[in-house]
Amino acid sequence: TYTNDPIDLNNCDKEPIHIPGFIQPHGVLLAVSTNNIPTIVQCSQNTEEHLGLTTQEVLGLPLEHLIGKDNIRQVLARTFSASVTSDLQYMDLTINVSGNEKVFTSVIHESEGLFILEMEPSYENGNMEGNDFEWISRFFSRLKSTDNRVEASQIAAEQVKEMLGYDRVMIYEFDEQWNGKVIAEAREEGLEPFLGHHYPASDIPKQARELYLRNWLRTIVNVNYTPVEIVPLLQPLTGKPLNLSLSVLRSVSPLHIEYLQNMGVGATVTISLIHDNQLWGLITCHHYSARYIPHRVRNLCNFLGSFFSSELFQRQQLDEYQAEIRSREAATQIANIFIGNTSPVRIIEELQDEEQTLLSLMDASGAAICYQDKLLLYGDTPTREQVRELAAWLAGKAEDYSYHTSKLSLEYDPAKVYKEKASGIVYVAISPGQHHYIIWFRPEVVQLVDWAGDPAKVVIKTDDGMRLSPRKSFEKWREVVQSTSYPWTTKELNVLPMLKSIVRRQTENQLVQAEEQAL
Ligand code: BLA
């Protein structure tokens, strides 16, 4: 391959996966000049197998001589539309191969001044024909009938599994640091579940994610394939290997192949989930033997994937909107306790009954309120003494009466001993001197996952070949997110000003009243 540095586990993001110099063998690739007589200037070394002509015979040949007059018109029309739109429209080309008519499903696109024509023999279309309308209508109606994100993802996974006839289909969602989580899964019976598992960003390196943003579907037809070389290696116009960024046959990174082999996977399809030109997730599909999916079905999956993506986004907005309303209501309820009462004793009595309200306000697992020297604890929290010490530290950290972090133990040493309860905290002072305050707690996410069942403990295989595997990846992810809670979202933190203003004003009033009474 064309690289200077050897690629290993630590520099995956440097691998130039767009110029591998190879393709997968289930199709044939021709690079064609764009001048008056489109001429083949590079080709994959499997032309004889697919087209009945050796690479020597193909190279330098005008494309028309290979595919015929009728086809060349179709192809040229597509090259024009391919250069304006980025979607790959496939066409069937019937070509005479050693005296026999052979049909190829073909796509064409522009690459650095050349056209790349990729042709796949369409013999395998047969038994998958005819279900399209049924698939589309079932996909739409089942998706429409769900009322939250996870349910919708589950339906999408099940429907894609049915369409592809694959063994496992996962909905994989990225977080802000590009770590990933399997949020829904449909799989054949007896397969180990990956649902709920987390993986580090390095499993799908940046340059791969960039390609998935440009190509909405990626398929590896046979993980154990022998790559086919493109000859000559260098693209005549650029002097570099042919740029295969938009190629559907592009050969796969050997490291990723190793990963899939270690998992026992034989074929994959990956469908991009995009919103606002951002890759937010992937539909990742595994089959445990080689499996070819015709272009028609790939296109359909693409289309349904983008429908699912926008449906899901609407649902997410609705979910977030409802969560925001709930937390505003909870904040109002807490604020009203202070506003509606003048007696500190009464306030504390009422606060004692509000565990659910307080926890749901911040989607927290624990909370503490300190008021008039009384410390009330709710849910899972550090000890009283630890909370009081933490509060003193927080009073110094707070700007404009509040502070939050999702990595407490990395900022405040004493928290190391209770990070499983409090890696995330939100602090808000409710009196000017910060003697009165509320703190919310979230657990370390790693502990949370371990309680739910530790994927790293699932034994897949134990031989040396396991250095790249989802299990190892989980361990790596665990190192990355150690000492971290799920992040506090902007929407969640949005209620803080409300608490600060109402509660602070109210407590000031009460203090003034108390002082007046004392005089
Ligand atoms: C690509 N890595 C991918 C893809 C997935 C994953 C889904 C898309 C390609 C595909 O297989 O269809 C990761 N697959 C996963 C994860 C699970 C899964 C997390 O099933 C969990 C269940 N990958 C590594 C390391 C490197 C690496 C260490 O783990 C680098 C050394 C590289 N992954 C890598 C590359 C690609 C990739 C280069 C792009 C492959 C391509 O499109 O050519």
UniProtKB/TrEMBL annotation:
The organism of origin for this protein: Paenibacillus pabuli
Protein's name in the database: PAS domain S-box-containing protein/diguanylate cyclase (GGDEF)-like protein
Keyword Repeat applies: no
Origin organism lineage: Bacteria, Bacillati, Bacillota, Bacilli, Bacillales
Claim: Membrane is one of the keywords in the record: no
Domain of life: Bacteria
First and last residue of the signal peptide: none
Record's keyword terms, sorted: Chromophore, Photoreceptor protein, Receptor, Sensory transduction
Record-annotated Phytochrome chromophore attachment site domain positions: 148-306
